[in-house]
Amino acid sequence: xxxxxxxxxxIYSKDSVDTELRVPVHAKYDFAxxxxxxxxxxxxxxxxxxxxxxxxxxxxxxxxxxxxxxxxLRELIAAKLERxxxxxxxxxxxxxxxxxxxxxxxVIKALVDPGDxxxxxxxxxxxxxxxxxxxxxxxxxxxIDDDSIIPEELEALIVKLTAEGKKPKLLYxxxxxxxxxxxxxxxxxxxxxxxxxxxxxMVIIEDECYTDLRYEGETQESFRxxxxxxxxxxxxxxxxxxxxxxxxxxxxxxxETMRRALSFRMTGTNHFTSLxxxxxxxxxxxxxxxxxxxxxxxxxxxxxxxxxxxxxGTGTTWxxxxxxxxxxxxxxxxxxxxxxxxxxxxxxxxxxxxxxxxPNGDGDHCARLCYGYESVEKNRDGVALLAEIMEREGSFxxxxxx
Length: 402
Ligand SMILES: Cc1ncc(COP(=O)(O)O)c(C=O)c1O
Hints:
Aspartate Aminotransferase, domain 2; alpha/beta; eight-stranded mixed β-sheet; Aspartate Aminotransferase, domain 1; binds pyridoxal-5'-phosphate
């Protein structure tokens, strides 16, 4: 038995970072993560679907799987994209991977070198922001309003960055129910953005993992349906309509981008889970999507109503998305939601402050509150508790309701 601890410090690779391990934690009222209601996960449907598929073709589990995922699931996705997102794609140009996080990761690896400039919405999903930063990208946020990216501002930013010698390579965007604001980019703006990106020779990564979660209004035309030249990479996920624990997402790109992106995958896609998800979705995808939208809508309404009741008169504003699992809150400028986060967590309310979604820094006075995971009652009570905590911490110059 060795007596001294082995010193690995000269051995670690230059790229490795001693990172804190992320262990999921849940506050009593968990508004921190865009995750579904655990009661909505179709356990019986998934296990029935799995048994059927195992009986039919379970022997295939003996093989190391296809890096693009099982053909049945890719065919189902192709049909869904044609029906819901308005574009036709061969299943050969769809890759099913371990969640849209992995899809984004391999696409970023295929497109971005350290030092490259990339543009995304300011504010934007913290996970992809972290992935771009990890890839060494110079990440720049483009201004958004209630209709998301403002095309004129985007073009002015591209021109400015190019003049500074930092010509951006790509735009990463979440067009439907942008995470974290919940805003949707109208088709007209998408057309303008395609024109801008084409003129400036930029790729668009369109991350559409929330597009099915709509309970009001119309789905806008996807970037990929507006451009099939290869400029648009489309990313989708089963995490938001089923469950993140299944780890299945996908991307659609031109064949060479796909081959380059998949070169960063050292393993195939989980065949066992794919069988269950394929057969379940084949049987009842739209019934299930309708069901989750029916249960999420009153949750959104409860959170919005509770914000009105408990934050009215404090100078706080919030978005009311027409779908998704979250909304965006802007507190008065003097509030520091980043400092409040651990205090609120200890007192029972989990949320993420705006700073984690900010490519350009700032965001301390904002927060994303996710309503999909908790019940209607807990959405109502948790928001009331948050107001109580903030009042106690002296966050408001005017008391709620005052
Ligand atoms: C915009 C966006 N993209 C990607 C992901 C990653 O999701 P998953 O890897 O579970 O598909 C998330 C998760 O919240 C997200 O909000």
